[in-house]
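Interim report, section 4.2 (structural modelling).
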Amino acid sequence: MKVNIIGSGNVAFHLLKAFRDAGLEDVYSVEPHSLQGLHTDSDVSLIAVSDATIPEVIAHLPEMKGIVAHTSGSTPLSVFEESGIRNFGVFYPMQTFSKSKPLDYKKIPFYVEGSDKEAAQTLFILASLISPIVRYADSLQRRALHIAAVLSCNFVNHLWTLSSLFLKENGLDFADFLPLIEETLDKVKTLSPKESQTGPAVRGDMNIVHSHLDLLNDKPHIKEIYRLLSESIYNIHHNHE
Amino acid sequence: MKVNIIGSGNVAFHLLKAFRDAGLEDVYSVEPHSLQGLHTDSDVSLIAVSDATIPEVIAHLPEMKGIVAHTSGSTPLSVFEESGIRNFGVFYPMQTFSKSKPLDYKKIPFYVEGSDKEAAQTLFILASLISPIVRYADSLQRRALHIAAVLSCNFVNHLWTLSSLFLKENGLDFADFLPLIEETLDKVKTLSPKESQTGPAVRGDMNIVHSHLDLLNDKPHIKEIYRLLSESIYNIHHNHE
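Predicted structure of the assembly:
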């Protein structure tokens, strides 16, 4: 299979490496502005650029023999409509990419969608070269994935940020929390997160909840988050939703 | 060292096991209501019962030779005041304990506090038998730890719960997110959580934030959390606190 990877960012960098590691020889790195290096006879061209730049790249592509797919979790398939491209799709690796860190590609789930069944299957096969976890997902499902990723990762990381700043102010070290956090993550590998829930709010221990809220009086910003999430835990677990 | 462990719950169970694994021979399991099994000549007696029950256990203790300490993260040292106990303290293992899961005790940080320096040092040495991570922390710091644990673990787990329910409704599987979450956790082992932050809110990508909020219109409960946490990320990273 011949593959163009259009882009110069983290996703492009890692996809290029992953395909080469998987033994794919005809993988071409394509500069996204000039399209230098583009092979119009490639079976698949992956547009791995920022969401905002995708329409631009699509608009400037010459006629392509194969499938053109973007790699964005938050851009619908319809971005290819009226582009004149016949075979198109989405090839979304769900992972946070940074150039400096090696990734275990075998753990990255890929979500693919195609303009037709054949396109979807080709993208599925291509993703399977890199990862054993490949799923078909339509644009709506991909949006749900993105929202869930924001909740599960971005917001989670932010709670760690708030903790680390709060601990530092109290002469304590966030690093001490890593084992506790690892244990929390380990639990959801065997139990569902709902079953794994611990803490004052799920126990309905309102004494602790209120004493924490009182202690956060000079941190209205954290206090509001504490209040809302405790309420949410209580509601989800005591069926008052 | 002779040690009483007063309690029949998860913390008592794991402490008993950890001390025995560490080669401590004179560790006694004490029934919390009858105090059956109590050795009044023990060097340390650890009260590992629910927060609400601690005062009761303290009130019923006979005169003890050694140090009496509770194991609660959220109970102040002052619970021992007016108890007549001369040497007391806190011996707080910061971890979520469940009986069914083996724990790596070497990864659990212990926070100790004593009625005097000697009591604190004895508790420090005792904790050092189990874990290499032992810190002195006063009652205020311990309250900060507890709040940070709620933020870093309980609330984090709840965000995973909300994600898993949302994914399920969309025909998707939370298990696919575990690698992404692991990667998120791996990052904060080398970078600070603040430096590790990714996602639409930190990028200031308000198009994505607003499109997600729109998609969550029929989920007001998740929408409110999404709004508040996105705002908090934006504020923390763009210095508008």
